[in-house]
Amino acid sequence: MKKLLSVFAVVSIISSMAAFGADEKKKYAEGSCCAKAEAKGEKCKHPCCVEAEKAGKMCEKCNK
Ligand SMILES: [Zn+2]
Ligand SMILES: [Zn+2]
Q1: Helix, strand, or coil (residue 63)
Q2: Are 49 and 59 in contact (CB under 8 A)?
Q3: pLDDT at res. 54
Q4: What would the pLDDT profile of 12-51 be if each residue is shown by its tens digit?
Q5: CA 40 to centroid of ligand 2, rounded, Å
Q6: How many CB atoms lie within 10 A of CB 62?
Q7: Which numbered ligand comes closest to the C-alpha of 44?
Q8: What is the pLDDT of residue 59?
Q9: Distance 37 CA to ligand 1 centre (A)
């Protein structure tokens, strides 16, 4: 039983870290084209942003 509890503790730590990481990654600059597109449930269509998205990043030109 003790072992099960520690497994739970580890899982909750990992999932909270994962949630934090996802939060960090999705933070577009407020008012940027990408943030506006995301608010509508879409992806920004600017070529520079599409390129950045493909590389797994967010556009640095538009998200300062
Ligand atoms: Zn954009
Ligand atoms: Zn851009």
Answers
A1: coil
A2: yes
A3: 94
A4: 887 887 766 555 556 899 999 999 999 999 999 999 999 9
A5: 17
A6: 17
A7: 1
A8: 95
A9: 8
How far apart are alpha carbons 45 and 37 in whole angstroms? 8
Q: Annotate 29-59 with b (16+ C-beta within 10 A) or e (fewer).
A: eeebbbbebeeeeeebebeebeebeeeeebb
**Sign of the torsion formed by the C-alpha atoms of 14, 39, 50 and 52:** negative
Number of the ligand closest to the Cα of 61: 2
If DSSP states are collapsed to H, E and C, what string results for the chain?
A: CHHHHHHHHHHHHHHHHHHHHHHHHCCCCCCCHHHHHHHCCCCCCCHHHHHHHHCCCCCCCCCC
Per the structure block, which two tokens stand in for 12? 């909750």
